[in-house]
Amino acid sequence: MRIVLPADWPLLVAIAVLFAASLALPALAAGGREFSGLELLLDGWQGLFRGVYAWLANPLFVAALVCAFLVRDVAAAALSASALLIGGTSVFVESALRARMTSVPEIELGVGFALWMVAFAALCLRSLTRVLVSRRRA
Fold first, then answer.
1. Which conformational region is residue 6 in: left (phi greater than 0), alpha (psi within -120 to 50 degrees), or beta?
2. What is the C-alpha to C-alpha distance for residues 67 and 44, in angstroms, rounded to an integer?
3. Is the pLDDT of residue 71 over 90?
4. Of 10, 11, 50, 83, whose CA is between 20 and 30 Å from 4?
5. In sequence order, what are the residues at sequence separation of 6 or more whose Cβ sits closer than 8 angstroms to the Cβ of residue 3?
6. Torsion of CA 87, 84, 114, 44, to 10 degrees
């Protein structure tokens, strides 16, 4: 089986680099401590038990990126849009935790979070654009 890369594969690599860069930067500060994107990626799944579902955006993004590289644009668009929406719920993480716990420190989102969301938005826009262009040609 021969894999054919999409014509805009350098854009997909750039989006993957944005995601990787977000892992190296401070993504969240709470209780006097900063957490890198990588720390949140590795430990963020624990938030699922506390009603914080934003971590689920990571596997959706990876699946969307794989679909984009395999030229499955509709799937990539759906998965990346889902990742963008679920990742966006991060802005409500403090209120979600306050609803379930009594003592929650102030939470600030950092530049790693912003880059993480930019990667999601870029993949979503790229995938939606390809879907719309292909439908116009049909």
1. beta
2. 24
3. yes
4. 83
5. 70
6. 20
Rg (alpha carbons) of the chain, rounded to whole number: 16
Q: Which residues are registered as beta bridge partners of 127?
A: none
What percentage of the chain has pLDDT greater than the value 70? 97
Question: At 60, which amino acid appears?
Answer: L
Q: Return phi, psi of residue 103, to 5°.
A: -115, 105
What are the tens digits of pLDDT across the range 31-68? 899 999 999 999 999 988 878 899 999 999 999 999 99
DSSP result, the chain: ------TTHHHHHHHHHHHHHHHHSEEEEETTEEEEHHHHHHHGGGGGGGT--GGGHHHHHHHHHHHHHTT-HHHHHHHHHHHHHHHHGGGGHHHHHHHH-S----EEE-HHHHHHHHHHHHHHHHHHHHHHHHHHH-
Q: What's the token pair of residue 30?
A: 């709470």
